[in-house]
Every structure is written in structure tokens, then in C-alpha cells.
């Protein structure tokens, strides 16, 4: 793939630094210098208004990742991004329990069907198996690099809707508590030696014995929403791992990634996506 970058500052910039500012990581730069692609520029510095052309090598399919042709719900696609609406129950990436039919396997099958040259899906906003909603996927090396920078700088806005046990939640609140893995266990917990974690929420509506909340993540710890709300004594409905009520008519944690928004680093345009609540969560609300 060919990419053209222009120095829009009024100062010369060293070529390596200039490329880094445009998402070419140190590792990617080393690969380009070794012939896995090409930098069409032979000067030490990039002058104001000068352009640099970069050709990235295609990413061939990983033979260890199996192909699935099961359907995916595509919300948006261009040369750099794929945005899909993941159903609850579909694992995001292959692992010991499922190597044949995960979101990655399905996207690989879709890309092959489309005749794509880059066949390695890079999952950017990964969701737990039983969490439904919007997932952002980078279609090549550079998009993956730029998306990871946006994540680290908190420039990808991710919002969720959840049904949590109990009521009397504040109209708006923040949870700032570190999260870490419980030794010899699968689950996470709030613990003083954990990593910093910040969750912001708004009460949308209170029902008889549970509440609908909108949630924004400011960090991306494993199971962050589930851990924080369990620590508040408001576990998610259906969340067996984190002690949520299992008798409310939903068979998985009631969590849906409903909103994704970011400024596309390629086009500088804001991309905004919303996904409506899935049927199982809608049914709970309709019955109350």
C-alpha cells in the first residue's frame, strides 16, 4: 500500500522522527529499511511542504489462523478500517478454547472473499466473549499503529450501556480504583497493587431492582466495567463470573458497546458509530 505524508509544519524534521509522527513505529521503520516495503525519500530531513512516499508490504495470512466464513455485521468499511457489530457469545480472538470460529477467523474469511491483500485483522477495541457491540478493526500495519497511539492517548471514545443490579445510583459518578488479577484465578478485582483504572457512568433509568447506566471508559483494563460495578455492589445482570444476578432473564453479562467515535488519522474526519441494544437487553427493559 502507498501512503503519502506531507510536512505541514514550518520547520524541517528528521526523516525518522517525521515518519514516527505519521504512525511509522520504530519496528515498522526497521522493516522498511530491511526491504519489507520502501521509503521513497533519500534526504536526512523533510522540509516544510515536502512529501514522503511510503510503500508498505502486504500482510499475508497467518497459516495458524483458521478461516471461518460465518457472517459478520459490517457497520463501516474503507481501505483502513472495518467496524463490525459483534454479537454476544462470539469470542474476539482465537485461544485455547476456540481456534476455529472467532471474530478474527470470520474477518479473515471475509477479507479472503473480498480479495484483500492484507489478511491479518488487527482488533483494536476488543470485547469479552459475552459482551456485544461495536468493534474497531485495523486492516493493515499502519492503521494498527495509529490506532494504538490513539488508544494510548485516549483519543478513541468508547461508551457502553449496562444493566446493573440494584438502584439508588448517583446520576453521574466516577470510579477510580486500581484493578489487578487475582492470583491463580481467572477473574480480576479491585486491589491496591493493581493498575490504575477509571470508569465514568451516568444513570439512564432506574427500574424495580436494577438500573440502566451509560458508561465511558477512560482506561482499558481487563473486565474493567464488570469489576468496578461489582466492587460498588452493583454487579451486571447475568454476570456469573462477577457475582451478578442470574435469575433476571439474561444468560450473559448485560453489557453492550453501543458507541465508538474517533478522528480518522488518514482523513482527519470524525467517524461516529452507534449500535442499538441487542434483543436480550431490550426484552429486559420492555418487561419492566
Low-confidence stretches: none
Helix content: 10-25%
Give the DSSP E fraction (strand runs of 2 or more residues).
25-35%
Per the principal axes of the C-alpha atoms, what is the gross shape? globular
Q: H/E element string?
A: EEHHEEEEEHEEHEEEEEEHEEH
User: Would you report the number of β strands?
Assistant: 17
Rg: 21 Å
What is the helix tally? 6
User: What CATH first level of the largest domain would be assigned?
Assistant: Alpha Beta
| Corresponding CATH architecture of the largest domain | 2-Layer Sandwich
Question: Structural class, please?
Answer: alpha+beta
Alpha-carbon distance between the two ends: 52 Å
The largest β sheet comes out as: 10 strands, mixed
CATH superfamily of the largest domain: Pseudouridine synthase
The CATH topology name of the largest domain reads Pseudouridine synthase
Mean pLDDT: 95
How many independent structural domains? 3
Amino acid at each position: 500500500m502507498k501512503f503519502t505524508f506531507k510536512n505541514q509544519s514550518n520547520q524541517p524534521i528528521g526523516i525518522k522522527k517525521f515518519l514516527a509522527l505519521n504512525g511509522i513505529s520504530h519496528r515498522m521503520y526497521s522493516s522498511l529499511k530491511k526491504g519489507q516495503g520502501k521509503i521513497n525519500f533519500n534526504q536526512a530531513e523533510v522540509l516544510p511542504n515536502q512529501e514522503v512516499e511510503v510503500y508498505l508490504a502486504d500482510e499475508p495470512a497467518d497459516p495458524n489462523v483458521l478461516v471461518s466464513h460465518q457472517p459478520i455485521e459490517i457497520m463501516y468499511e474503507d481501505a483502513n478500517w472495518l467496524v463490525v457489530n459483534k454479537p454476544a457469545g462470539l469470542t474476539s480472538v482465537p485461544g485455547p478454547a476456540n481456534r476455529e470460529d472467532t471474530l478474527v477467523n470470520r474477518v479473515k474469511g471475509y477479507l479472503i472473499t473480498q480479495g484483500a491483500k492484507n489478511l491479518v485483522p488487527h482488533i483494536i477495541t476488543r470485547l469479552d466473549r459475552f459482551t456485544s457491540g461495536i468493534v474497531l478493526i485495523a486492516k493493515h500495519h499502519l492503521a494498527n499503529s495509529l490506532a494504538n497511539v490513539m488508544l494510548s492517548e485516549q483519543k478513541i471514545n468508547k461508551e457502553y450501556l449496562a444493566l446493573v443490579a440494584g438502584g439508588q445510583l448517583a446520576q453521574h459518578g466516577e470510579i477510580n480504583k486500581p484493578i489487578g488479577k487475582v492470583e491463580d484465578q481467572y477473574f480480576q478485582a479491585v486491589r491496591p497493587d493493581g493498575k490504575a483504572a477509571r470508569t465514568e457512568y451516568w444513570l439512564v433509568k432506574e427500574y424495580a431492582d436494577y438500573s440502566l447506566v451509560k458508561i465511558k471508559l477512560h482506561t482499558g483494563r481487563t473486565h474493567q466495567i464488570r469489576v468496578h460495578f461489582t466492587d460498588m455492589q452493583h454487579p451486571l445482570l447475568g454476570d456469573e463470573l462477577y457475582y451478578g444476578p442470574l435469575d433476571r432473564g439474561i444468560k450473559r453479562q448485560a453489557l453492550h458497546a453501543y458507541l465508538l467515535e474517533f478522528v480518522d488519522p488518514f482523513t482527519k474526519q470524525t467517524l461516529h458509530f452507534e449500535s442499538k441494544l441487542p434483543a436480550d437487553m431490550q426484552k429486559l427493559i420492555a418487561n419492566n
